[in-house]
Design goal:
4 domains, single chain, five-stranded antiparallel sheet, 13 strands, 18% strand, SH3 type barrels, elongated, Transcription Elongation Factor S-II, Chain A, alpha+beta
Length: 411
């Protein structure tokens, strides 16, 4: 019944007009989609005299005027002039390889990529071996078959994930990373709130901080601590990282054990690290024995002593005496000329001028430093041996020890 009424309305309101269109407007720039599933392509125009605003009037490609009740209209899609011209060209294009190629090239020149693809696909339907169309559509010849890049990647076991071709294992890792990032974001907000809470409700905030055990909280804690100046808060989070005990937490503690400006925090970090018995952390402290800063060298030795790993002995022997550059400020600046009083052979005094010397100018020199913390660590890790700062004797002793261990192992 509905279609019958619509057909009657259309039949009554059709009238022919000249080829120039109405009001000088371009034709075929709009598409009216109907609730019933049909559509009409043309140009929306002002309703003819006698029609109400309850209708939509469109001029079709054959210059007919159709008025449709708005209740029957599902959607009106307006086309640009280029799209309208494309619609006209499409209707005039023969269904041949040459025709579709010509229109595909026109679409390329007018930035109609979707429309261009339609014609390229029609070309390979008509001529499956059309190489240029195949290439433009992303096909490659594999053996005797044309395959798209997607088909090739899938045949190799890859899957498309967020615009990237990845192996299923990589997708799983990426999803886990994304989930971890989301969890870490939540922890960042929570830790920020807890740090603020230490000022307003310290008892509750401290209790919640001490209860943290989630490894995902490590990175947010480390980031928060970079701007945290309160020693008590740094001590609190040092304990938390020790309780979490993951490799990431241990690495953060190792850095604090060396670089925190407060000795109590450094020692607290070492206390938290010692039970973890991490070879990675021992290696980190060994590397810091080669630091340019003599103070860092001694802190690293102190850390190795606390870790109690004898494998650090050779590195400690090499660090007993280290050379470091120091800056020596001058007491007076250099001058170009030197002036002074002198006595002549006649006994008269006068002013004399001469070329000035460099004087006591600022300079940088390299000097050897004996490192007491290194010696203390060696004494403890060697079981009480003490050769002072005599590197030669320490190396001889260590070589003897290793030889004795090797001989015992062969027996």
């Amino acid at each position: 019944m509905r279609l019958l009424i619509l057909s009657s309305v259309i039949a009554v309101t059709i009238c022919l007009v000249g080829r120039g269109g109405i009001d000088g407007k371009s034709l075929y720039a709009d598409t009216v989609t109907l609730h019933g599933g049909g559509r009409i392509v043309g140009q929306i125009v002002n309703s003819p005299e006698g029609q109400t605003d309850e209708t939509v009037t469109i001029q079709t490609e054959d210059q007919a005027i159709i008025s449709i009740p708005k209740s029957e209209v599902k959607e009106i899609i307006s086309l640009s002039e280029v799209q309208a011209k494309y619609q006209r060209l499409r209707q005039q294009t023969p269904d041949t390889v040459e025709g579709h190629w010509k229109l595909a090239e026109w679409c390329r020149d007018h930035n109609l990529s979707k429309e261009r693809e339609v014609h390229l696909r029609r070309i390979i339907e008509l001529d499956p071996e059309h190489q240029r169309a195949r290439a433009l559509l992303g096909y490659q010849k594999v053996g005797d078959q044309w395959k798209t890049r997607d088909e090739i990647m899938k045949s190799m076991g890859y899957v498309l994930y967020k615009g990237r071709w990845m192996l299923p294992q990589q997708v799983q890792l990426e999803q886990e990373r994304e989930q971890q990032t989301a969890v870490q974001r939540d922890w960042s907000l929570r830790i920020h709130r807890l740090i603020k809470g230490l000022e307003t409700d310290p008892v509750t905030a401290e209790r919640e901080i001490k209860a943290i055990r989630d490894p995902a909280a490590v990175k947010p804690i480390v980031l928060a601590m970079r701007n945290e100046s309160r020693e008590a808060v740094r001590l609190l989070f040092t304990d938390v990282l020790g309780q979490i005990g993951t490799p990431e937490a241990a690495r953060a503690l190792a850095i604090w054990a060396i670089e925190d400006p407060v000795e109590e925090v450094r020692l607290h970090a070492l206390e938290a690290l010692a039970p973890l018995k991490s070879g990675e952390i021992v290696s980190y402290f060994v590397g810091r024995l080669r630091d340019k800063d003599n103070a860092i060298v001694n802190r690293a030795a102190q850390a190795l002593q606390r870790m109690g790993d004898p494998s650090a002995i050779p590195a400690l022997i090499d660090a007993l005496v280290t050379r470091h550059k120091i800056f020596i400020p001058g007491t007076r600046p250099p001058t170009g000329m030197a002036a002074g009083f002198s006595s002549s052979s006649t006994g008269k005094s006068g002013m004399s001028f001469g070329a000035g010397s460099g004087g006591d100018t600022p300079k940088v020199v390299e000097r050897p430093f004996s490192n007491p913390a290194v010696l203390e660590a060696l004494v403890e890790l060697s079981g009480g041996q003490n050769f002072g700062y005599d590197v030669r004797l320490w190396k001889h002793w260590y070589a003897t020890q290793k030889q004795a261990e090797a001989t015992k192992a062969m027996q």
